[in-house]
């Protein structure tokens, strides 16, 4: 069970079904209440009309025995006086409740030949009016506006039903104030509400089943590409073949964007892994040469001490040490090491790096950036080393402020860098034909390290043409305190 409802498809189907179920129950309840209220209101209106008709006859001095409203088969009627004494009732009324009095047989009275009791005379009416606390002033023959409503039951000619009763007061000219209770059956209301409830009890489950089925099918169709992506990712993981890609649906929805993002991630991962493989292979190749040279010299020295080339051994050891340091720095940069957020004066740093170098001229204004002094010094040192290998007679270092950036330029008067190679020289272990010698050109890591450090500091490093015709390397970094920050992830 937990596995079944652990899927997105099952949860979506269950959630949609529950939401529709709650909405249907709320709507159905509101519909039933509204239907019941409307039908009950209609029954009340019919009961009030019947009571008003009887009250009109009473207001016109119609004798109790000749009231036409007492003959209606489906309208039970009671007429009571102010003391609650039943004066008249429908002929076939056997039992009643909900009207304030359960009497169905009028109280015995002295009647004359025209149907009037002993209170029909004018003297009795006047006495009643004098003794009554007349809260609601009604003139003789006047019917009170509005009616009061109650629910109850009545048995008429053996049939018991629920009724809506309306009570209407009338000030009669000869009998004082009377109250007429008339009822209208609620059978139609009960029948309509019952029919609606039955339809809901049958229709709602069917509708919920349709909603669940449609949601299950639609969700399954929508998630089918996701399952394809999952299967392909599982196959890629098992085969370790990063050249494979997940299928991309021919749509423009979230699933298609997920597939494209996944493929972009796989492409970036493939590039990173391939770059790492090349890096390891190139590093092994670069390390092999100084190690082999150093081993040869040591073996020769062991066999013939007088032939030991101490200067060459020291030089190979230094090369090996520098290469190991470069590889370690690249590894830290690849691992995402963030530079320190200290303030560094690039003008002072440039003068410091150029102090012991010949042919280097520094033209700098004080400019501060945030970052690692050691790493930024390494960038300047690598750029100056590269310039010294290619410069003819002069190297110029400039430091200036340009907008919100600090710009460091290192220019030489050498042969320059061809435009087609100005990006390739920043790749690791790349040496151009003019600098293929390991003794003169190094391992091809200096410019790659310089660019990686620049990027980590939120800046850029580009190669171009110097005014003197040589190469110009331009380092741009955000000024200390600028919104661009000091490092990129």
Backbone CA Rg: 52 Å
Overall pLDDT score:
83
Order of H and E elements: HEEEHEEEEHHHEHEEHEEHHEE
Described by strand count, sense and barrel closure, the largest sheet is: 7 strands, antiparallel
- The fraction of residues in strands falls at 15-25%
* Residue windows where pLDDT falls under 50 for at least 5 positions: 110-134, 434-441
* Number of H- or I-type helical stretches: 9
**Which term fits the overall shape?**
rod-shaped
Query: N-to-C terminal Cα separation, in Å?
Result: 44 Å
How many strands appear in the DSSP assignment?
14
Helix content: 40-55%
| Structural class computed from helices and strand pairing | alpha+beta
Give the domain tally. Answer: 3
